[in-house]
TrEMBL record:
Subcellular location as annotated: Membrane
Protein name: Menaquinone via futalosine polyprenyltransferase
Pfam families documented for this protein: UbiA
GO molecular function: transferase activity, transferring alkyl or aryl (other than methyl) groups
Keywords noted in UniProt: Cell membrane, Membrane, Transferase, Transmembrane, Transmembrane helix
Species assigned in the record: Vulgatibacter incomptus
Amino acid sequence: MVLELGRLVRFSHTVFSVPFAVAAAAVASVDHPITLRVALLVLICVTGARTAAMGYNRIADREIDAKNPRTAKRELPKGAVSIRAAGLLTAVSGAAFLGAAFLISPLTGVLAVVALPLALGYSLAKRFTWLCHFWLGVVLALAPIGAWVAVAGRFDAFPILLGAGVLCWIGGFDIVYALADMDFDRREGLHSFPARFGPRVTLATSAVLHLFAPLFFVAAGVASGRGPSYFAGVACAAAALLAGQIVTLRGGKGDAVFNANGWVSLLFGAAAVVDVVLSGAVA
């Protein structure tokens, strides 16, 4: 059951939120030393929020997933996980997120109360708007912003610019990922960017968004005075974005696009942490 629940919420998808949150916390720790307690609470927040959101997504979409050949073998449609178990996992994860956030500070607790409904609401967005992909981008952009506030206790230019880059990256990725379900979405009356605008506009929009994403990452680094390692990480992330665009242009869909884009946050997050460590060693 544990393995089935892990597959239900796709823990592999943590590569889209955790590395950016870790990067933001690491950069914030340069001027605001981070304690082990806060670091663990931030990790609980990020993991709890994404698990709750993914669990609710699977519950809300179970009937839609059952109709879609691409998703019909997911755990809820095929009966490998019960709705009760999925609901319990979602509730516990959401409670862990809120509890950890309030343990960090009242400010992060209030932000969590706002963020959780946004994260859960994404699952329903495609029923009424093709902006659902950018809704997801906003939700994931909150991860580095929240991590920064947890460590620094305030907002700053770095997390805002980094969050803008995450929004562009996720929006550009998710609209091409949705190409795999374009025909299904149209038949079922679901709203998605590809269903509304077609493949050509989707590909062009994704390319533009993935051009802006590394520019925002660069701006965040400049605003916070980051070093060479950080910008090398941005270059690697930009290369991963380009690889994702190439995979898409060659006809790749679904997991093929996911795998290419998964490297973006991993490369960036690792480089940002290394840059902080090296800057501390030099200092």
